[in-house]
Design a protein that fits this description.
Largest sheet: 5 strands, mixed
Radius of gyration: 16 Å
Number of helices: 4
Distance between the termini: 23 Å
């Protein structure tokens, strides 16, 4: 991001996506929202945050570790703010993470 700002490069398109991983157990999942420049596939930024377990592991996770905070929207918003792209009407946004992406971009 600092390189883009220093060079004065304007972004025409941004692709937003999310990966999932886990801490030391699948009952402790992590979300990794990231923003990529589609043409070059260069990663422009990312965050790592906690999220609640899903599916059959959800009950096991709550029982063993307690309720897990969901910081996905906060992490994605922070990422957009760092890019400064959230305020730009000139950028073509692309995402496969539609439900949360739509909530974040409307806030």
């Amino acid at each position: 991001i600092a390189d883009l700002q220093a060079s004065g490069t304007k972004l025409n398109a941004i692709q937003f996506d999310e990966m999932e991983s886990f801490e030391h157990s699948k009952c402790l999942p992590l979300s990794i929202p990231l923003v990529v420049q589609p043409e070059s596939r260069k990663i422009l930024g990312f965050r790592v945050c906690s999220m609640p377990a899903k599916g059959p592991l959800a009950g096991i996770s709550v029982k063993k570790y307690g309720r897990r905070a969901d910081h996905r929207a906060v992490a994605a918003s922070s990422l957009f703010e760092e890019l400064g792209a959230r305020q730009s009407a000139q950028i073509d946004w692309r995402s496969t993470w539609q439900s949360t992406f739509n909530i974040i971009t409307k806030s």
